Amino acid sequence: xxxxxxxxxxxxxxxxxxxxxxxxxxxxxxxxxxxxxxxxxxxxxxxxxxxxxxxxxxxxxxxxxxxxxxxxxxxxxxxxxxxxxxxxxxxxxxxxxxxxxxxxxxxxxxxxxxxxxxxxxxxxxxxxxxxxxxxxxxxxxxxxxxxxxxxxxxxxxxxxxxxxxxxxxxxxxxxxxxxxxxxxxxxxxxxxxxxxxxxxxxxxxxxxxxxxxxxxxxxxxxxxxxxxxxxxxxxxxxxxxxxxxxxxxxxxxxxxxxxxxxxxxxxxxxxxxxxxxxxxxxxxxxxxxxxxxxxxxxxxxxxxxxxxxxxxxxxxxxxxxxxxxxxxxxxxxxxxxxxxxx
Length: 342
Fold this sequence. Notes:
The protein is an alpha/beta fold. The protein folds into 2 domains: 4-123 and 297-314, Rossmann fold; 125-285 and 321-340, Dihydrodipicolinate Reductase, domain 2 (2-Layer Sandwich), CATH 3.30.360. It has 10 helices and 15 strands. It has helices at residues 13-24, 39-49, 57-63, 75-87, 102-115, 129-139, 173-176, 180-196, 298-308, 316-335; strands spanning 4-9, 29-35, 52-54, 68-71, 91-94, 119-121, 146-154, 200-208, 220-227, 232-238, 249-253, 256-260, 268-272, 277-280, 339-340. Strand 5, helix 5 (102-115) and strand 6 (119-121) form a beta-alpha-beta unit. The protein is globular, with a radius of gyration of 20 Å. The N and C termini lie far apart (43 Å). The relative contact order is 0.16.
């Protein structure tokens, strides 16, 4: 079977540390094109992975025959570039958040449906082993009825990881539209939906810019969520965790508590009301701090979905449901109201 031809649009940190290495180690694909408005970035990546360099994604899509496209661009460009790639006949893996408005997300889903091409959103937390195990435990009733949760994603900010440091697009509203909530909060919205296996109906939030100077997006947020079955919990996203990154989720149930990525030694700890306790040794979550970015499972799942013509775990519809929570949180903070989701 011939290899799938891949183009990566955007050659910043997310493509450098995740998409490109994961494509490179996948025997079923070939990296044939790279695009970045800063030509030197694409040229530097070419030295490692090969491929033809472009500075205009439209020229790339016109000139190349591409099977797969990774969209690794500022948030405001996710929708237009993904739609253009889908319309050109390519399957698309788009970074999160998939879009910045409901209308953009709907247009992306429509483009995928019309073209018959796969649209997947790169929510890598669904592939973390502790998260998958927790989902299994909840589904089989190990902790009984779930009552509450808290889930958080926080670190010192994109300046420590973005290719542009403190001058990163992450901090500019015209490019990012949404700050820490779009960068980190949407990950946890997607994760808690996945683990609990249900949707959310009510969102209330306080979203602030109080940790960084000279930025035009949010950097700190605390959200209160309510699910269809009445589970309530908190979701926090922050660029103000200056000392230690946190990616912890704790789920409280009738028969026990699950602690995910909340302990230095065990990725998942299950403590039960009968006094028993299980420490799972199933590998730590990958983090920006530790730089282990080459086996998230996202790219391999995307490639497999295309090869087998099966729906990916996070298609456009799934991506939009997680985005809707974040958009509702932003609206709640602006209006002071609890936002109802369909």
